[in-house]
Design brief:
The structure holds 2 protein chains of 2 kinds.
Chain A: E1 5-7, E2 10-13, E3 19-24, E4 31-37, E5 43-50, E6 53-56, E7 65-68, E8 75-79, E9 88-95, E10 104-105, E11 109-113
Parallel strand pairs in A: 2-11
Antiparallel strand pairs in A: 1-3, 3-8, 4-5, 4-9, 5-6, 7-8, 9-10, 9-11
Chain B: E1 4-7, E2 10-14, E3 19-25, E4 29-37, E5 44-49, E6 55-58, E7 61-65, E8 71-76, E9 85-93, E10 100-102, E11 106-111
Parallel strand pairs in B: 2-11
Antiparallel strand pairs in B: 1-3, 3-8, 4-5, 4-9, 6-7, 7-8, 9-10, 9-11
The chains are: A mainly beta, B mainly beta.
Chain lengths: 114, 112
C-alpha cells in the first residue's frame, strides 16, 4: 500500500511569490491533516479535512494560507504571497474513517522563502 | 502556548545504555501517539496509547501512559546505533477535534 506522498519535496522561492504544496493521502483515508515545523520549533497543526470539508482550520497562521481538498482526495496548500517566516517543513498526514485513528505522515515539503 | 512538554531536548548515550524521554500535558489527553523521525526524514508512527495506565512494548521499546492520561514516557533498553533520531510524542487533547499537539521532540544520538 502506498503511503502519503507530497510534492514537491523542496521549494525555494522569493518573498512575495506564490507556492502550492500538494498532498496525496493514503487511498481510502477520509481524514487529511496539514502540519508545519518551523526551524527549532515543534510540529504544529494547521488544519484538518474530513473528505472535502474543513473540519478544523484553527492552526492556519493567516489568510495568506489557503488549503483545498476538492473531491476529497488530494489536497493543496497555497501560500500567497510567501513571507520569510513561512519557511519550514510542511507535513501532510492522513488517517482512516474516524478521527482519532493513527495519523500517517508524508515525507514533507521543505519550503525556503528568501 | 505549548501544551505538551517533552524532555529532555537532547540525549547522547553510549551504545548499550538505556534511554528515556518524557512527555507531560497540561490537559487530559484522549490518546497519545509516539513518532520517530530519522535525520532528514519524516515522522514515522510508532505506537498509540489510549487507556489510562497503559503499557505497551515493542522489542526494546516500552511505552507508558499515565493514570491521569496527562503524561507518557518512551524507554529504550540497550540502545543501538539504529535508534538514532528524534522521538516525538503527540497528544490528542480532549476537545481538540483530533488534531495532534506535538512535543518538541528528543534528539537521541548513540555513540558506537
Amino acid at each position: 500500500e502506498a503511503g502519503v506522498t507530497q510534492f514537491p519535496s523542496h521549494s525555494v522561492i522569493e518573498k512575495g511569490q506564490t507556492v502550492t504544496l500538494r498532498c496525496d493521502p493514503i487511498s481510502g483515508h477520509d481524514n487529511l491533516y496539514w502540519y508545519r515545523r518551523v526551524m527549532g520549533k515543534e510540529i504544529k497543526f494547521l488544519l484538518h479535512f474530513v473528505k472535502e470539508s474543513k473540519q478544523d482550520e484553527s492552526g492556519m497562521p493567516n489568510n495568506r494560507f489557503l488549503a483545498e481538498r476538492t473531491g476529497g482526495t488530494y489536497s493543496t496548500l497555497k501560500v500567497q504571497p510567501a513571507e520569510l517566516e513561512d519557511s519550514g517543513v510542511y507535513f501532510c498526514a492522513s488517517s482512516q474513517a474516524y478521527s482519532g485513528e493513527t495519523q500517517y505522515f508524508g515525507p514533507g515539503t521543505r519550503l525556503l522563502v528568501l | 502556548g505549548q501544551q505538551v512538554m517533552q524532555i529532555p531536548q537532547y540525549q547522547h548515550v553510549q551504545e548499550g545504555e538505556d534511554f528515556t524521554t518524557y512527555c507531560n500535558s497540561s490537559t487530559t489527553l484522549s490518546n497519545i501517539q509516539w513518532y520517530k523521525q530519522r535525520p532528514g526524514g519524516h515522522p514515522v508512527f510508532l505506537i498509540q496509547l489510549v487507556k489510562s495506565g497503559e503499557v505497551k512494548k515493542q522489542k526494546r521499546l516500552t511505552f507508558q501512559f499515565g493514570e491521569a492520561k496527562k503524561n507518557s514516557s518512551l524507554h529504550i533498553t540497550a540502545t543501538q546505533t539504529t535508534d538514532v533520531g528524534t522521538y516525538f510524542c503527540a497528544g490528542d487533547l480532549w476537545g481538540s477535534n483530533y488534531k495532534l499537539t506535538f512535543g518538541k521532540g528528543t534528539l537521541l544520538t548513540v555513540n558506537p
